[in-house]
Write a structure and sequence with these properties.
This protein is α+β, with helices and mostly antiparallel strands. It has three domains: about 90 residues, ATP-grasp fold, A domain (Dna Ligase, domain 1); about 130 residues, ATP-grasp fold, B domain (D-amino Acid Aminotransferase, Chain A, domain 1); about 150 residues, 3-Layer(aba) Sandwich (Rossmann fold), CATH 3.40.50. Helix content is about 35%, strand content about 25%. It is built from 13 helices and 19 strands. The strands form five sheets. Strands 8, 9, 10, 11, 12 and 13 form a six-stranded antiparallel sheet that branches. The longest helix is centred in the middle third of the chain and has 19 residues. The radius of gyration is 25 Å and the shape is elongated.
Length: about 400
């Protein structure tokens, strides 16, 4: 789960990390009052969406004023006008894709006198199964761009959970960022505070870009992105309360309510599979035969007829789906339950695209009988290879 910048800044502030004072508004008429509560004389007006690259983004609609979702205002009136220009419009960045995201919140904060922009992040390194720090002197840029063009400017290391974090980790970050004097001491504290926040809130990613050195020589987190482990949200009611469902894919949101593992993709063949490994293999073989999967969908081993029905409805709600491949290997999951769910869903929402079904395992004959006697226009497949070939052929001709 991701949260907005203003929410991330609030968490950072609670853990002693220096950030600018700011106010969030959802109505343009509140912007002038919000800005007047801050010191000025420079205000930063930031569109709040779950995506990076806001400053370089552009708005789809006319009337949004100058380009970019991060702007500098020199008066409270100007801050209000910029808020009015951005609220309710669709911001497109390199992370949102062409569809962009609608701006429903604006964060207005005090401007900062910047001497240097740096980069600092914490993430879970799956290679080492540890929390890793990533630091670079190239703040304000996309870290992917830095990695591609100047990888030598990135320093990364993991923290051994047995020994835990020590001050030398903070000094290592400080030296990697070229800090000196009092800034080194500040960096040691910053690293310790961020690491504690990361662990206590079960984060997957914490990115500060840029981390700045102000003209008076102090460190400050000027921007922040945070992602949390969904599987751990049950023990963090305070974090779950920050969830903004308007920022999530409607299909993924619907799937989460039925405990379905669904991720929307850009392809044309919808997939319904049980088991994450089999789902990945199904996506791979679709690509092998010349098409692209429209989603990852694992209905799980204990799915009910109702869950399967909802899964099928979610797949068919995707306008990009030109065909559907159901690939079930019944172990814990029974093939007859899948078949009943498919039949119920088709009767409810209709079937406008080719449907290929491959069933194998527990109660497979009963499942096939349900499909065959349903009157549905279904293409049967003998195995995964056969199913992939048939759905790709049906979609591409």
């Amino acid at each position: 789960m991701n949260i907005h910048e203003y929410q991330a800044k609030s968490l950072l502030r609670d853990y002693g990390v220096p950030v600018s004072d700011g106010r969030v508004v959802t109505r343009a008429e509140d912007a002038k009052r919000a800005a007047s509560e801050l010191d000025g004389p420079l205000w930063v007006v930031k569109a709040q969406i779950h995506a990076g690259g806001r400053g370089k983004g552009h708005f789809m609609e006319s009337g949004a004023g100058e380009k970019g979702g991060v702007r500098l205002a020199k008066s409270t009136s100007e801050a209000e006008e910029m808020t009015r220009q951005m609220l309710g419009r669709t911001l497109v960045t390199h992370q949102t894709g062409e569809a962009g995201k609608q701006v429903n919140r604006i964060y207005i904060e005090d401007g900062s006198d910047i001497e240097t922009e740096l980069y600092l992040a914490l993430l879970v390194d799956r290679g080492t199964s540890r929390v890793s720090f990533v630091a670079s002197t190239e703040g304000g840029m996309d870290i992917e761009e830095v990695a591609a063009s100047t990888p030598e400017k990135i320093v990364s290391f993991s923290v051994d959970p047995a020994s835990g974090l020590s001050d030398f980790h903070g000094r290592r970050v400080a030296f990697a960022l070229g800090l000196k004097g009092q800034q080194v001491k500040q960096c040691v504290k910053l690293v310790r505070d961020l690491y504690r926040l990361f662990l206590e809130k079960d984060m997957e990613m914490l990115e500060i870009n840029p981390l700045i050195v102000t003209t008076d020589g102090n460190l400050k987190a000027l921007d922040a992105k945070m992602g949390f482990d969904n599987n751990a949200l049950y023990r963090h009611d305070d974090i779950f309360a920050l969830r903004d469902e308007t920022e999530e894919d409607p299909k993924e949101l619907a799937a989460s309510k039925y405990d379905l593992n669904y991720i929307a993709l850009d392809g044309e063949i919808g997939c319904m599979v049980n088991g994450a490994g089999l789902a990945m293999a199904t996506m791979d073989i679709i690509k092998l035969y010349g098409a692209e999967p429209a989603n990852f969908l694992d209905v799980g081993g204990g799915a009910t007829k109702e869950k399967v029905t909802e899964a099928f409805k979610i797949i068919t709600s995707d306008e990009n789906v030109k065909g559907i491949l159901v690939n079930i290997f019944g172990g814990i999951m029974r093939c007859d339950i899948i078949a009943e769910g498919i039949v119920a869903a088709v009767k409810e929402v209709g079937l406008k695209v080719p449907l290929v079904v491959r069933l194998e395992g527990t109660n497979v004959e009963k499942g096939k009988e349900i499909i065959n006697t349903s009157g549905l226009d279904v293409i049967a497949a003998d195995d995964l290879k056969d199913g992939a070939e048939k759905i790709v052929k049906a979609v591409k001709g």
